[in-house]
């Protein structure tokens, strides 16, 4: 498959290169922000301190850097500005239900404006990004190469957020924790979903260590059959839990994002990596043991759902699902025709240490992929002589 056929098949891959993002995932975060105002500028929810977990190659960190440090306009702010421009042109009585008006707001270049036209940087921004893989440097981002599932990462993170951090005087200080963590998928769905959920629990544990009360947490999930249990476990520690599917995430993929708002720290409890499920366990037990509950925990750990009486039973709760990104945004599953003179751009940031590099080196050392190669041939000749 050539570069331009991928550009045709994946509009967000092409756009990411055109707009200088390191990965197409940048659009997922921007579209989630459009819906949930993650990078709010308004007090008291003003967002200035963020942790980006599983951050390589760094497109989410780029979004953070450009929105918070440089003050560029993307996501919710860009949408609000577009609406203001439209209202100024049409008057306050505009009818957004009309298709023409909606198209004018979402599609016309004058309404879209330039992301960098008015810069609105914030003071005292602190952004920490963590990944197992090395990541090329990014302006204003503190980078850690660490495993989010390992307990030794916790003090590294706390110190990176605040160099004067005092373990005995722990205060929660981060406004937002985001995690786009994904394991190397094996194609065995159950295994992939399990490993993904372990990354999510580690991300949640780290988030609970650093978030301020009222803070937000966004993390990638795979919508498997026990996903309902995950929602039930997030609900006790956050005021609101939503499932978001950005338009840039392919409909055919089981990927979605939990968006949790209004963190409520648990009194007298410090979460630790490895035992993170313990605190949330009562929720599971409640679900399983209650006779009147319309949910039951099956032996395999999944929750069985019944849909009657949802209004009257407070334990019955299904996370609301929201698609985000405006309707005129590119469709991640569509194939687009490119102009005749279209030139495919190179990637913004080639991988620094991709796992396949080692495999290629091994293969070269072994003499190549196909048949007898020079080195093997030489070895055989040496054996013969
Ligand atoms: C989909 S990529 C993240 C893309 C990133 N959000 C961006 O916008 O560029 C998933 C990342 O999760 C990282 N990851 C997987 N398991 C991890 C772990 N245990 N600790 C830290 N990072 C991990 C991988 O190294 C990979 O870079």
TrEMBL record:
<feature type="active site" description="Proton acceptor">
    <location>
        <position position="220"/>
    </location>
</feature>
<dbReference type="GO" id="GO:0106340">
    <property type="term" value="F:tRNA (guanosine(34)-2'-O)-methyltransferase activity"/>
</dbReference>
<dbReference type="InterPro" id="IPR002877">
    <property type="entry name" value="RNA_MeTrfase_FtsJ_dom"/>
</dbReference>
<protein>
    <recommendedName>
        <fullName>Putative tRNA (cytidine(32)/guanosine(34)-2'-O)-methyltransferase</fullName>
        <ecNumber>2.1.1.205</ecNumber>
    </recommendedName>
</protein>
<dbReference type="GO" id="GO:0106339">
    <property type="term" value="F:tRNA (cytidine(32)-2'-O)-methyltransferase activity"/>
</dbReference>
<feature type="domain" description="Ribosomal RNA methyltransferase FtsJ">
    <location>
        <begin position="112"/>
        <end position="263"/>
    </location>
</feature>
<dbReference type="InterPro" id="IPR050082">
    <property type="entry name" value="RNA_methyltr_RlmE"/>
</dbReference>
<keyword id="KW-0819">tRNA processing</keyword>
<dbReference type="Pfam" id="PF01728">
    <property type="entry name" value="FtsJ"/>
</dbReference>
<dbReference type="GO" id="GO:0002181">
    <property type="term" value="P:cytoplasmic translation"/>
</dbReference>
<keyword id="KW-0963">Cytoplasm</keyword>
<keyword id="KW-0808">Transferase</keyword>
<feature type="binding site">
    <location>
        <position position="58"/>
    </location>
    <ligand>
        <name>S-adenosyl-L-methionine</name>
    </ligand>
</feature>
<feature type="domain" description="Ribosomal RNA methyltransferase FtsJ">
    <location>
        <begin position="21"/>
        <end position="67"/>
    </location>
</feature>
<dbReference type="GO" id="GO:0106050">
    <property type="term" value="F:tRNA 2'-O-methyltransferase activity"/>
</dbReference>
<feature type="region of interest" description="Disordered">
    <location>
        <begin position="361"/>
        <end position="385"/>
    </location>
</feature>
<comment type="function">
    <text>Methylates the 2'-O-ribose of nucleotides at positions 32 and 34 of the tRNA anticodon loop of substrate tRNAs.</text>
</comment>
<dbReference type="InterPro" id="IPR028590">
    <property type="entry name" value="RNA_methyltr_E_TRM7"/>
</dbReference>
<dbReference type="GO" id="GO:0002130">
    <property type="term" value="P:wobble position ribose methylation"/>
</dbReference>
<dbReference type="GO" id="GO:0005737">
    <property type="term" value="C:cytoplasm"/>
</dbReference>
<feature type="binding site">
    <location>
        <position position="131"/>
    </location>
    <ligand>
        <name>S-adenosyl-L-methionine</name>
    </ligand>
</feature>
<feature type="binding site">
    <location>
        <position position="147"/>
    </location>
    <ligand>
        <name>S-adenosyl-L-methionine</name>
    </ligand>
</feature>
<keyword id="KW-0949">S-adenosyl-L-methionine</keyword>
<dbReference type="InterPro" id="IPR015507">
    <property type="entry name" value="rRNA-MeTfrase_E"/>
</dbReference>
<comment type="similarity">
    <text>Belongs to the class I-like SAM-binding methyltransferase superfamily. RNA methyltransferase RlmE family. TRM7 subfamily.</text>
</comment>
<keyword id="KW-0489">Methyltransferase</keyword>
<dbReference type="InterPro" id="IPR029063">
    <property type="entry name" value="SAM-dependent_MTases_sf"/>
</dbReference>
<feature type="binding site">
    <location>
        <position position="180"/>
    </location>
    <ligand>
        <name>S-adenosyl-L-methionine</name>
    </ligand>
</feature>
<feature type="binding site">
    <location>
        <position position="60"/>
    </location>
    <ligand>
        <name>S-adenosyl-L-methionine</name>
    </ligand>
</feature>
């Amino acid at each position: 498959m050539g570069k331009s056929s991928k550009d045709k098949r994946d509009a967000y891959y092409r756009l990411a290169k055109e707009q200088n993002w390191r990965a197409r995932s940048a659009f997922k975060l921007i579209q989630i922000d459009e819906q949930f105002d993650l990078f709010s500028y308004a007090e008291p929810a003003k967002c200035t301190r963020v942790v980006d977990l599983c951050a390589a190659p760094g497109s989410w960190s780029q979004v953070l850097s450009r929105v918070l440090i440089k003050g560029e306009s993307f996501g919710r702010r860009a949408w609000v500005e577009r609406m203001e421009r439209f209202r100024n042109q049409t008057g306050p009585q505009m009818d957004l239900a009309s298709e023409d008006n909606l198209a004018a707001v979402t599609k016309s270049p004058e309404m879209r404006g330039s992301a960098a036209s008015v810069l609105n940087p914030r003071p005292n921004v602190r952004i920490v990004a963590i990944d197992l893989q090395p990541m090329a440097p990014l302006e204003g981002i503190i980078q850690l190469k660490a495993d989010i599932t390992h307990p030794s990462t916790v003090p590294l993170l706390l110190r990176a957020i605040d160099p004067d951090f005092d373990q005995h005087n722990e205060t929660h200080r981060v406004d937002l924790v985001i995690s786009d963590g994904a394991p190397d998928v094996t194609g065995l769905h159950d295994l992939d979903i399990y490993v993904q959920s372990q990354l999510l629990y580690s991300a949640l544990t780290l988030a609970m260590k650093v978030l301020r009360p009222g803070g937000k947490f966004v993390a990638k999930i795979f919508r498997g059959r026990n996903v309902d249990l995950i929602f039930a476990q997030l609900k006790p520690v956050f005021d609101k839990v939503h499932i978001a599917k950005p338009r840039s995430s392919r409909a055919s993929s089981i990927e979605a994002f939990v968006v949790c708002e209004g963190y409520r720290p648990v009194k007298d409890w410090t979460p630790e990596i490895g035992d993170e499920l313990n605190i949330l366990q009562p929720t599971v037990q409640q679900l399983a043991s209650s006779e009147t509950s319309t949910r039951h925990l099956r032996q395999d750990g999944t929750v069985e759902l019944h849909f009657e009486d949802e209004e009257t039973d407070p334990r019955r709760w299904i996370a609301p699902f929201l698609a985000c990104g405006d309707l005129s945004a590119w469709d991640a599953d569509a194939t687009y025709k490119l102009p005749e003179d279209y030139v495919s751009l190179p990637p913004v940031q080639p991988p620094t240490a991709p796992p396949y590099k080692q495999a290629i080196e091994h293969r070269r050392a072994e003499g190549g992929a196909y048949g007898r190669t020079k080195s093997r041939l030489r070895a055989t000749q040496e054996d013969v002589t």
